[in-house]
Amino acid sequence: MKKCCKSTVVRRYEVLESKNRYYCRGRCLGSQQIGLFLFTLFLIIGTTILFFIFDCPYLYKKLTIAIPLVGALLFIFVLCVLFRTACTDPGILPRSEKDEVLFNERQALVASNLVDQGQQMVSNFQMPRYKEIILKGKTVKLKYCFTCKLYRPPRSSHCSVCDNCVERFDHHCPWVANCIGKRNYRFFYMFLVSLSILCVYILACNITNIVLRSQSQLVADAIKATPITVVQAVICFFSMWSIMCLCGYHTYLISSEVSTNEDIKESYSKKRNENSNPFDRGSICLNFANLLCSSISPSLINLRETIPRKLVNECNYNFDQLRSTNATKTISSSVDARDNSLTLNQNGTSFNNTRQFIIENV
What is the distance between the alpha carbons of residues 42 and 30, in angstroms, rounded to a whole number? Predict the structure, then answer.
């Protein structure tokens, strides 16, 4: 028998530091907590199948074939946007690479004038929590993430469930087992709207079914003849209120160009004397157009990228050496080393250009 040899390359998703689950060899992703997502699928698929089996045949004969067709189209659309929401990269920000982390620490040491003030002070040094930049003529404060080792762009936040920083982070939704962010928010909103319509549609058909049957018999007998219709009506009735309220809430957020995270933190609240929302386009129509009609930005992480396994091991080993007990000597000495100045400047320009591009496309 042939011995299974270890592959010489790995996919990016296999070595990515996060709590996500990856499916189809990195083509789809989601959180580790998929219980509520499976329950969501069960409710949607189960209720709709019951509708097709017990209501559609009767309504088709009594009324029109359009009833099952419309129901099928709504059902397919709901599933499509649900899976698109659950499996799409929400806008994960790539963590700083090893070289970028060291470069940022060296720059921060120089800026803080700590290089020549002793090894003990350098070893206890932490990156500044906030950094101010000028964006579109306005001063914007960026917050440093000690997990991802980067200054987060505006409107971004770190999700503790998925352990990632996400662009335009809205919230983590356990019902779809994924974060809701810049790249999948439109699909999440379309899921809420279409699911609300589907619930109301099935409930209306359930009521119509019972009303038509009660024309030739008592209402109690009509209910006994189709008990499954009553079960569907109860499920849809109690589900649609929470779904419609959530849909209405997100409609308000979109019209104001505010995320759930920003609304909870009252980032632009007048009570806190905060500045006006710099991302509001001044029109409800423009805010909706930006969400529904603008192009989706490409993912910042290539999950299927192949990396030589040897390179991964070497990078981890070298970085562990640099961050050892003697790392402070390496950092402080390399700041002033002329041999490294050119490399640092080149790497720094590359890092800054990449992060600046992300920030400017918020």
Answer: 18
Q: Which amino acid type is present at position 250? A: H
Instruction: Compute CA distances 326 → 29, 103, 205, 320, 323, whole Å.
Output: 39, 17, 73, 11, 7
Q: In the chain, what is the straight-line distance between the N-terminal and C-terminal CA atoms, in Å?
A: 55
Look up tokens 């700041």; give the residue.
335
pLDDT of residue 83: 94
Distance CA 349, CA 329 (A): 24
Contact 256, 270 (CB under 8 A): no
Q: How far is CA 154 from CA 34, 48, 128, 143, 278, in A?
A: 29, 41, 17, 9, 11
Q: Which one of the listed residues 56, 173, 179, 247 is annotated catalytic?
A: 173
pTM greater than the 0.85 cutoff: no
Q: How far is the C-alpha of 80 from the C-alpha of 191, rounded, in Å? A: 9
Strand partners, 298: none
Sign for the CA dihedral angle at 109, 115, 118, 123 comes to positive
Amino acid present at 329 = K
Residue 250's φ and ψ, nearest 5 degrees, are -70, -30
Where is average pLDDT lowest: 65-69, 137-141, 211-215, 289-293? 137-141
- Specify the amino acid at residue 147: T
> What is the DSSP code (8-state) at residue 124?
T
Render pLDDT for 71-127 as a digit per residue (tens, 0 to 9): 999 999 999 999 999 999 999 998 887 777 777 777 777 666 655 544 444 444 577
Q: Provide the 10 A C-beta neighbour count for residue 23.
A: 12
- pLDDT tens, position by position, 30-73: 888 888 999 999 999 999 999 999 999 999 998 889 999 999 99
Q: What distance in Å separates the CA atoms of residue 265 and residue 116, rounded to the nearest whole number?
A: 40
The token duo for 61 is 């004969």
Q: State yes or no: is 173 an active-site residue.
A: yes
Max CA-CA distance within the chain?
95
The DSSP-derived string for 88-122 is S---BPPPPPHHHHHHHHHHHHHHHT-TTS-HHHH
**Phi, psi for residue 192 in degrees, rounded to 5:** -65, -45
